[in-house]
Design goal:
By secondary structure, the protein is of the alpha/beta class. It has 8 helices and 9 strands. Strand 1, helix 1 and strand 2 form a beta-alpha-beta unit.
Length: about 240
């Protein structure tokens, strides 16, 4: 991996061998064009060869690394383990299928340089949606947001689930050291912990496109999400600031 990187980009992936080479190539071009020292860590579960593809790319580029197993262990767990390894002054993650183009980081960089601890993308409030989700998923997203706010709080945060988030190194290490949710609701947990720790959170409208390839099982997945939301609410909603 790269020494003393300015930014660590984590790409969580589950069976993404088809798309991961382009996502990595786009990120490498972006960081190189802006003169940023970088490392890219792919947290890849699944048995389709994603890890092998990344390892082959790493033979040509030592700034690439990969972790993961054949079993699907959860996006939250993959990112947590990658953050523990990350060395960048800024640590963040983006979707492996490039839902948010990496050059949207241009909007995040000034805020992080100003000392904002947590900068998160939002698909609302002025975002550019190039390809929208199907109506049933948009309606489901609105229902989720209402339930999540009722249970967990996080007032003022309008999109917890956008997979484009960046943190100052100290904040990332502390947040993911405390994070426990392995599945999709880890984003909510991270933001709840950040609020309790008093970290400054800034939301940035981004350019986003749906890939029409959801990996969420609508029944089992949503039952697990509901359980995890209850767990986060019990842990963080009505307690004071963390020390």
């Amino acid at each position: 991996m790269a020494s003393d990187p300015e930014i660590s980009l984590i790409l969580p992936a589950y069976n993404e061998a088809r798309v991961i080479p382009k996502t990595i190539a786009d990120a490498v071009r972006y960081f190189t064009a802006r003169g940023l020292r970088y490392e890219i860590i792919v947290a890849a579960d699944g048995a389709d060869g994603t890890r092998e593809v990344v390892r082959e790319m790493a033979r040509e580029n030592p700034a690439l690394g990969v972790i993961g197993e054949d079993a699907r262990r959860g996006k939250g767990r993959g990112i947590r383990e990658a953050v523990a390894l990350a060395a960048g002054a800024v640590i963040g993650y983006a979707d492996a299928d490039n839902k948010v183009p990496i050059d949207e980081f241009d909007k995040f960089c000034p805020l992080l340089q100003q000392g904002v601890d947590v900068v998160i993308g939002t698909r609302r409030g002025g975002a550019t949606i190039e390809r929208a989700q199907p109506l049933y998923r948009r309606l489901g997203g609105k229902a989720f947001h209402w339930v999540m706010q009722a249970a967990v709080g996080l007032s003022g945060i309008i999109d917890t689930q956008c997979g484009f988030k960046f943190f100052l190194r100290s904040a990332a290490k502390e947040l993911f050291r405390r994070q426990q949710i392995d599945a999709y609701m880890f984003d909510v947990e991270i933001l709840a912990i950040a609020r309790r720790l008093g970290y400054r959170i800034q939301q940035v409208p981004i350019r986003w496109r749906d890939d029409a390839d959801s990996r969420l099982d609508l029944v089992a997945g949503n039952l697990r999400n509901a359980r995890d939301i209850c767990r986060i609410a019990a842990e963080h909603r009505f307690r004071g600031r963390l020390s």
